[in-house]
Design brief:
By secondary structure, this protein is of the alpha/beta class. It contains 23 helices and 15 strands. Helix content is 45%, strand content 16%. Helix 9 runs antiparallel to helix 10 and helix 18 packs parallel to helix 21. The chain is elongated, with a radius of gyration of 28 Å. The termini are far apart.
Length: 564
Amino acid sequence: MRKKLPIGIDRFEKIRTNDFYYADKTLFIKELLQNWGEVNLFTRPRRFGKSLNMSMLKCFFEIGSDPALFEGLKIMQEKALCEEYMGKFPVISISLKSVDGLNFKMASDALRTVIGKESKRFRFLRESCFLDEKDKTAYERLINVDSKSDASYAMSDATLVDSLNTLSQLLAQHYGQKVILLIDEYDVPLDKAFQAGYYDEMVSLIRNLLGNALKTNGSLYFAVLTGCLRIFKESIFTGLNNLKVHTISDPRYDEYFGFTNMDVDEMLKFYGLYSYKDVIRDWYDGYRFGNTDVYCPWDVINYCDELLADPEAEPENYWANTSGNDLIRRLLKKANQTTRNDVERLINGETITKVIRQELTYRDVEDSIDNIWSVLYSTGYLTCRGKLPGKQMELAFPNQEVRDLVIDLVKNWFEETTQADSAKINKFCSAFSAGDTTTVQEMLSGYLWDSISVRDTAVRRNMKENFYHGMLLGLLQSQDSWIVRSNAETGEGYSDISIQTPERIGIVIELKYADDRNLETACGEALKQIEEKKYAEGLKRLGMKRIIKYGIAFCGKECMVAMA
């Protein structure tokens, strides 16, 4: 039987004991030990294997772990290293991705739960002959549950901020060995707090927690943290001069997060899917970490799974459905015309040059529209195509998946912004029902000028037509009394848009993207299709007294409207 694909599984032990496919990243351990840093921070976009790597580190270093998990993997060839480090350390491993809440109390309680549950893994400390009664009392404070609520840990604020330091000291005393500390998604609580309005309180809590654990912790052997952003300005790591930061721009460790080209080749050959390599490259490759081209592993695994079930399956947007798209939405809402032009250039396959700052905070994003480019780069929406002096980078969308995502978000943004001006949109729709092609064309051209257009030849024609289709549909659906249908069967096929008005006027609209044809020719083809496919017949059967047939052609920010 072939190995199962590990969709959504980020626990190394589960992958290795349940015969899941694993792209071997174990030499990350060797490089981490060779390039010694007491505190190591790795910033990578979501879904690029951060949590799985953290789980792998825990399974390798932790006392009592199973060496069989690493059988046949590259790290086992490093015999001296394995002899010295494998299974030799107490390990504290937490993920902060669940530290969320509507207010600060809820979020800090969630943090108590994360640390309390991890502390409970070490119940043997209650009976340890290496701890005195004072030490055991300190341990009890970490695991005590509030008597009023089974779900809430009772540790005080002072106990919470010192919890990781305390647990480190207790484990080091028990084992006679310093502790390895792993903190996954360290910046998620700050992101959630920023969105919910208690950012300053959470910054203070995380600063004190990490300061005690990483700066004043004599029981620490080394620590690894992961996140999306490198948060420095608010002094999360104040005075931490033992910190090494590894961002997506750094060449060191560049091959250990995400799939390299070799990883993808091996996987596709293993499953007999190598013929799909070009499609997978176009859709899911294009990221640049340090000096290495990287694929998003989440996407590759999901698409391979679809292909094994259906060889005709089309690539989908998997990554976007797991990543919050609020950053793009905020960009579009705050965007001036220059910013919209930048987004348009990106959609159309061009690069833009921006100064990239990798020490941003979530608050900085709101201070200047230019800062959003740095955040989009750090979180994987943009990738580097070239470096220039003064921290400038040439930026582009990494692949088809991200470009399609942004095109969809632009359509949604356009609908929201245009519907805010009800008088203007009512005038536009009235011109449609009156057969006033001049007004329709003039106003539609104005909307296009204020929005973002798609003209890149690499974008599929149906994607372009769908983009303009969605924009026009959003405008027409503003009329509550109209019945507006998209791709509805109205004759011998499906018209792009069909409308029924209370005055029993039926409207049929067929859209075309002009590409290398002129607009007039494309309009003619649209009208011809309406007649040949008898799109108006369905509206006649529904009792429409008058039928208006429109052919509309687009090309970039240009359009032409013709009526039969």
